[in-house]
Design goal:
The chain has 163 residues and is mainly α. It is 62% helix and 0% strand.
Length: 163
């Protein structure tokens, strides 16, 4: 504890000072909250909230979404026994069919696009913060085709496990 405030463990381990000053966790969390508020005020976040509300108010989408959740639950039940379950293929086909139907709604497409845009913004901000600390810090994202460590490709992370 420095002046009654918590400090980052790494700063304490390195003699209690980072760049000549104790790293104040409270201040860092306060700045993170401020950054979150700035992101919430962005045009991307506003579009996301607007699209989410449009989806929420669309009764046809909500009805189909409830049906989709039930179909996914049925498929998960079948999946526990593998593809040899008698209803496996029918359950999978139903999930895919409902997914296509949902994707047919303009409000759903716009919501997914807005959600991806906000996700990308959050990734870019996380990456900028991580790179300001170190080039080797991993930053998770929601990319279904990951790059670098663990993806089977080669990267320059320096961990030695990438090929």
């Amino acid at each position: 504890m420095v002046n009654g405030l918590e400090t980052l463990p790494a700063a304490v381990a390195e003699g209690g000072k980072a760049e000549g000053e104790a790293a104040d966790l409270t201040l860092l969390m306060s700045r993170a909250f401020e950054l979150g508020e700035m992101i919430k005020q962005s045009a991307l976040a506003a579009e996301y909230v607007y699209c989410k509300e449009r989806v929420r108010r669309d009764e046809r989408v909500q009805s189909l979404s409830r049906e989709f959740v039930k179909a996914k639950e049925k498929f998960a039940e079948c999946e526990r026994f593998g593809r040899f379950h008698p209803d496996y293929n029918a359950a999978l086909d139903r999930v895919r069919e409902l997914e296509r139907e949902l994707a047919g709604f303009e409000s759903v497409r716009r919501f997914k696009a807005a959600e991806e845009a906000v996700d990308h913004l959050l990734y870019e901000v996380s990456l900028a913060i991580a790179r300001a600390v170190s080039d080797t810090i991993k930053v998770p994202d929601n990319d279904p085709n990951p790059k670098g460590c663990g993806s089977g490709g080669s990267c320059s992370c320096g961990s030695g496990g990438c090929g």
